Amino acid sequence: MQIPDIIIAVDGYSSTGKSTFAKRIASEFSFLYLDSGAMYRAVTLYAIEHGIISPSGEIDRQALCRALPALDIHFEDTGNGSRTYIGDKCVEKDIRTLAVSDKVSLIAAVPEVRNFIDDRLREFGRKKRVVMDGRDIGTTVFPDAELKIFMTADPVVRARRRADEMKRKGEKADIQEVAKNLRERDFIDSHREVSPLTKADDAIVLDNSDMTIEDQMKWIRQIISDRFSYVRV
Ligand code: CDP
User: Fold this and answer.
1) ∠ CA 220-224-230, rounded to 5°
2) Boundaries of domain holding 126
3) What φ, ψ does residue 183 adopt, rounded to 5°?
4) Are 116 and 61 in contact (CB under 8 A)?
5) Predicted pLDDT of residue 231
6) pLDDT (tens digit, 9 = 90+) per residue, 74-87?
7) Phi and psi dihedrals of 196, rounded to 5?
8) Which residue's CA is minimally distant from atom 16 of ligand 1?
9) Full-model pTM
10) Is 1 a member of any domain?
């Protein structure tokens, strides 16, 4: 299988299956997968644990800016997927809780946080052959990405998928609560001043409400084959 050295940006609304899709693309084409949301979630976890964001969502912006430069967020490959770390502590499970989801969009709206994470993401992208998922990858982080996908799906389908995912991981998941969190995050993400969630002009929309992951892989293989003369062997 051949595919040139490109960057693939997968942006879209919460719980549209961006990470599942991006991971499959990475594994099929031997690309590096990067979960930009995990970085925002890790900063948010740190802020919650250090009292930088209050339960009602007020942010001590000065304390947050002071903490950022020393915050060592990185990924380690366990052989069974990549895990998010802060320093030497694996936070993969802690960053996926509803408590973090509840505050992450507030933290992600802080410009200094976005600059800090954008710089890290661009470093990862320097060697290309990267598929990255997020909200602003195709608009801000890599506006020149060679392939941009914008994912969307029916809100009810999204809430059900996220609740099922949480249950599989042994977490409590009330579907109404999950749906409310998705609505709130989509609203904050789409309306923030810096790098709001929006479709890049040259992104291709994928509504996967009625698609399986295999349907999505067929769809992307066709696009890659059309655009990059990808040769299946
Ligand atoms: O998994 P899900 O789609 O629900 O969210 P995520 O990708 O883990 O991202 C969590 C949150 O981080 C989003 O709701 C955004 O507020 C923020 N985010 C962002 O602002 N920009 C990105 N490139 C990625 C995530």
Assistant:
1) 135
2) 7-228
3) -60, -45
4) no
5) 56
6) 999 877 788 999 99
7) -65, 155
8) 105
9) 0.92
10) no
Cα of 211 vs centre of ligand 1, distance in Å, is: 22
pLDDT at residue 22 tops 90: yes
Inside any domain, residue 233: no
Please give the number of the atom of ligand 1 that sits closest to the Cα of 121. Answer: 23
Distance 71 CA to ligand 1 centre (A): 18
Render pLDDT for 126-184 as a digit per residue (tens, 0 to 9). 888 999 999 999 999 999 999 999 999 999 999 999 999 889 888 888 999 999 999 99
Give the total number of structural domains in the chain.
1
Distance CA 75, CA 65 (A): 22
Residue nearest to atom 21 of ligand 1 (CA): 135
Q: Kindly report the protein residue whose alpha carbon is nearest to atom 18 of ligand 1.
A: 37
Q: Residues enclosing ligand 1, CB less than 6 A?
A: 14-15, 18, 36-37, 40-41, 104-105, 108, 134-137, 185, 189
Residue 152, in any domain of the structure: yes
CATH code of 170's domain: 3.40.50.300
